[in-house]
Amino acid sequence: MGRKNKSEKKTKRKNSSGKKLVGRLDITRSGMGFVIVENLQQDVLIRPSNLNRAFHGDTVEVMVMHEGAGRSEGIITAVKERKQTEFIGVLEVNQEYAFFLPESSRKIPDFFVPSSAFNGARDGDRVVVKMVEWREKDKNPRGQVISVLNEKDTNDMAMKEILVENGFPLEFSDDAMEEALRQPDSITESEIETRKDMRNILTFTIDPVDARDFDDALSFRNLKNGIYEIGVHIADVSHYLPENSPLDTEAYERATSVYLPDRVLPMLPERISNELCSLRPHEDKLTFSCVFQITANGDVKQYWSGRTVIHSNHRFTYEEVQEIIEKEEGLYQQEISILNDLAQTFRKKRFQQGAINFSTQEVRFRLDEEGKPIGIIIKESKEAHQLIEEFMLLANRTIAEQVSKIIVNKKSVPFPYRVHDQPDAEKLQPFMAFARKFGYTFNVQSPEGIASSFNEMLKNVSGKPEQHVLEQLGIRTMAKAVYTIENIGHYGLSFEHYCHFTSPIRRYPDILVHRILASCLSGKPVVDKKLDDKCRHCSERERAAMESERAASKYKQVEYMKQFLGDEFDAVISGVASFGFWAETVEHKCEGLVSVQSLLDYDDFRHMETDYALVGRRSGRSFRMGDKVRIKLVSANLAKRQLDYEWVLQVDEDEPNTSRKSGKTKKKK
Q1: Among 12-16, 39-43, 411-415, 468-472, where is mean pLDDT lowest?
Q2: Which of 45, 266, 366, 609 has its CA 20 to 30 A from that of 289?
Q3: Distance (Å, rounded) from C-alpha 651 to C-alpha 238?
């Protein structure tokens, strides 16, 4: 023992810098780890023996043991936050206990599972296991079986795998469920007395046809002198979520609901999200509101914010409201028409003030009763969607501005702003060079000039062949919006102050906003010293949810396209890399890869990054992003969630010896 301590001390004297850093752990397939630390140019190397119970994706504390000209090396001293606590794998039962073998491309130790935690699972079953604890004296972590996967239901299994891989628990803990079920159905008179009572004012919700959690509502009434009083009412989730309770802790860990093609994994149990907090029609509901007095020209004269109680008169779908707008008739037509006119006024002002008008299509699948895709639906933003969007933006901006003015100890109160940074000059250069080839120039003298140039390009490109490619590339040049206490404004929306206040049923940052706003309104602003860490966590969970949604959508694309193996389609090149190009079918919006290997019969293609193109060395033939191509589906791999296409030469009347079927040109005799 003494010899070991002596050796350790010697190593420390020689190599250790003693510096401690916090970052995200990335474990390679070989088992070597790298801790990615913000604002550190090089990652910190972690050898397998120094991982100290940390898994891939965890946020960890690392002590730097060697620092020099090359890469720093360190030892993980603590796991600050687990990315994933549930895993999928196989159970190997041995009488009174079992070992769980996780399925992962990264090295994860087997879990010890006592018989009391089998939950009905048998030897050889494929299961979801939750890591319960990993004590220092134990060689293996302890786990419990959460659910047994049904091998026959491949869709259900695939969706669960995607969620678990991205660190989302499939079920709520018993404590969280018990807490949700304990909440009373009725609202007490004493609670109503502490709030502004708005139950006698016309109020309605507008949501997707399949929505069950209605977290926002609008109220409307005419005041004197041509002023409208319009209330934006948001479910008061924080009322039902005591801070640091089991329910609150679990909601924070998830930080967001995840929307997959065939299901929603909610941030909160349905008892909260779909019953108590959902602003269902003909029921009294507790809300947090922002009530505006607005002129017919869209000028906000004044506003009030605070806790309220409302009573929704009607539940509209977007389709119903769109029909009322277009036909100028129907229930509450006059009120909806005024709200729509105001929303369009707000929208126009936003773009005039520098907001960027990126319009994107939302692709969804029509599913049968078993969750299999049977068709594609392309949803576009219409006036009914914009009506809700503009009033939510108004409320979010107003609340952020209100809280930003509150000072504690000569500083603004810490607050979870939603920020969007200005475009990165490096990313912008190749895009501007590419846009110039289509005749679009950019003013880069100021951020406002860049935004104005984007809007001018988007307006002029509408309906032209290059529209899709320039819109997609433009979006990719933009920074990602995040949550942070450092308010740098929201570039894309052209707002100096912005936050998320309007969706607390599905986003945890909105709950944080409600709590801080409530403390400010009470005259006792809360200073949360851990708020920036919470913002980072919420941003990371948001990215994980987006990854889950993309992976699930890709799975459905592959599942849908399997029926078309060997068929040809018109497509548009949607991306280019050194190893090939991606093509998206025009009809189905399903993307797949055309490998550069499959093009070797035609030429040796090289990647021209500034042109977003593959160009043949001999022929000069190019495949450029945005080009229309004819492709054939040659592989649809569900396990890899991957479509593979082959490029097919179009029939050319001047070249009768061109074979459309094989894609190869026949040699002339």
Answers
A1: 12-16
A2: 266
A3: 63
For 21, list phi and psi in degrees, rounded to 5. -130, 160
Provide the 10 A C-beta neighbour count for residue 543.
Answer: 14
Give the closest residue to 423 by CA, choosing from 471, 370, 492, 514.
492
DSSP type of residue 413: P
Residue 37: DSSP 8-state: -
d(CA 144, CA 159) in angstroms, rounded, equals: 21
Residue 598 vs residues 228, 240, 278, 631: alpha-carbon distances, Å: 63, 58, 53, 12
Residue whose C-alpha is closest to residue 310's, from 179, 220, 175, 426 = 220
Cα 490 to Cα 497: distance, rounded to the nearest angstrom? 7
Inter-residue contact 294 to 300 (CB < 8 Å): yes
From 216, 192, 342, select the one nearest 289 (Cα to Cα).
216
Q: Are strands 314-317 and 203-207 parallel, antiparallel or unpaired?
A: parallel
Burial per residue of 317-345, b for 16 or more beta-carbon CB atoms within 10 angstroms, e otherwise? bbebbbebbeeeeeebeebbebbbbbbeb
How confident is residue 664, by pLDDT bands cut at 50, 70 and 90?
very low
Domains of the chain: 2-81 (2.40.50.140), 86-149 (2.40.50.700), 177-420+485-550 (no CATH), 425-478 (no CATH), 565-648 (2.40.50.140)
Q: For residue 374, report the phi and psi dihedrals to the nearest 5 degrees.
A: -120, 0
Q: Is the pLDDT of residue 657 over 50?
A: no
Backbone torsions φ then ψ of 89, nearest 5 degrees: -175, -160
pLDDT, residue 659, reads 38
